[in-house]
């Protein structure tokens, strides 16, 4: 009987917690979004459009415009990590090294 009472109390506590969480979510969530109709990208675009003076340029366009105003250049770093991550580059360099050909890098 003691075990039955403990499990019954635990069950009621779990029910109480679940229903209180549901009530709190209904109070504190402002609006419900149906993600089957709209996707996350549309929600991001809506949020971006609400922000004034948000930079909506593409990466290359922003770089070119900032390059005209400031003296900036892209940085290209060739390290062992980037060579090991790129299998095509790694195989290409190994082939050229074993054949002892010069690489126009």
List keywords for this structure.
mainly alpha, 105 residues
Terminal Cα span: 81 Å
**Total count of strands:** 0
> Major sheet, described briefly?
none
One letter per element, helices H and strands E, the order comes to HHHHH
Residue runs with pLDDT of under 50 for 5 or more positions: none
SS field, number of helical segments: 5
Structural class computed from helices and strand pairing: mainly alpha
How big a fraction of the residues is strand? under 5%
Which geometry do the CA atoms define? Answer: elongated
Q: Rounded to an integer, what's the Rg over CA atoms?
A: 29 Å
List the helices and strands and how they pair.
Layout: H1 2-28, H2 40-50, H3 59-69, H4 80-85, H5 87-99
Task: Describe, in plain words, how this protein is organized in 3D.
With 105 residues, the chain is an all-alpha fold. The chain contains five helices and no strands. The protein is elongated.
């Amino acid at each position: 009987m003691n075990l039955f009472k403990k499990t019954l109390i635990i069950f009621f506590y779990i029910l109480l917690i679940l229903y209180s969480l549901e009530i709190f979510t209904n109070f504190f969530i402002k609006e419900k979004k149906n993600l089957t109709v709209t996707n996350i990208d549309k929600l991001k675009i809506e949020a971006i459009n609400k922000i004034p003076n948000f930079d909506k340029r593409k990466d290359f366009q922003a770089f070119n415009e900032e390059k005209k105003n400031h003296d900036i250049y892209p940085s290209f770093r060739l390290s062992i990590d980037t060579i090991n991550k790129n299998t095509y580059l790694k195989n290409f360099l190994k082939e050229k090294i074993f054949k002892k050909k010069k690489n126009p890098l």
